[in-house]
Amino acid sequence: MSVRRAAGRLAITPSLTPRSLEKRGTPARAWQARIITLFPEAFPGVLGLSLTGNALAEGLWGLETVDLRGFGLGKHRNVDDTPAGGGAGMVLRADVLGRAIEMAMRGVPEDRARWPLVCLSPRGRPFTQAIARDWAGGQGVTLICGRFEGVDQRVIDHFEITEMSLGDFVLTGGELAAQAMLDATVRLLPDVLGNAASVEEESFAAGLLEHPQYTRPADWAGCAIPPVLMSGNHGAVARWRQEQAEALTRARRPDLWAAYLARKDRDPSA
User: Fold this and answer.
1) pLDDT single digits (tens) 118-132
2) Are residues 140 and 240 in the same domain?
3) Which of 93, 155, 166, 247 is the most exposed place for a label (fewest CB within 10 A)?
């Protein structure tokens, strides 16, 4: 009998406050996510629903939040200060965030390929499906949810933090981006999706956007399902889906289309 990935001893995770004895924790061998945030109440959010929520409840992955405010200074637990050199807004302090990172990274592998340390930032590297696959293949990830004007650069340099962006737009904080990235990653973990083929056929899996999908009724509002999908000819269906995926990618994402063609030129069997 195969052993589930989540099986084993419970994970030891950081906490500034005592936990309820009713909380059993997450199996140590399960994939783990740790979030440094000023708003721990934002989690699990949508991650607690549907497939990711079921997987979380079943111990297939674990989620821990580190409340940045708990490391703040003075009576009001200040975590930020004005930018050096002047300017609008506030910047997260190096001393405050540094202590939070040290706690969040306790007990994790030193190999960042197995456990990345990432700061959510609009100036970061774009998050992609390939990155989600890499994260899912490791043991976990620590995400820092940026706020205000950003993070003191010395923290990024000192801890060799990877900056990651959800897209070319600015959010008020990294919490939404963190949830999106975790959703993309967790669904790739073993046993989270009921049908592993869903991952293989969806957008970006082969460098293309996904083909159109249809279901019953066969005729709706005068529009019928393409006959080839009702033909029972699996070879013809596969060819139609490939043609549709290529056409959609060429029309909507010329950047992906160019990369796809380049890869085909290097390896025609890809």
Assistant:
1) 999 999 999 999 999
2) no
3) 247
- Pair (256, 141) in one structural domain: no
The reply to whether 136 falls in a domain is yes
> In this structure, is residue 203 part of a structural domain?
no
Contacts 24+ apart (CB under 8 A), 78-85: 79/38, 80/147, 80/148, 83/149
pLDDT single digits (tens) 155-211? 999 999 999 999 999 999 999 999 999 999 999 999 999 766 566 666 687 899 999
Task: Provide CB contacts within 8 A for 10, sequence distance 6+.
Answer: 24, 25, 26, 27, 28
Q: What is the pLDDT of residue 8?
A: 40
**Domain that residue 178 falls in:** 31-186
- Write the CB contacts of 140 (distance below 8 Å, at least 6 apart in sequence): 31, 32, 33, 34, 62, 108, 115
Mean pLDDT of 59-68: 98
Distance CA 200, CA 212 (A): 15
Residue position matching structure tokens 């899912």: 136
Answer whether residue 7 is part of any domain. Answer: no
Q: Cα 258 to chain center, whole Å?
A: 25
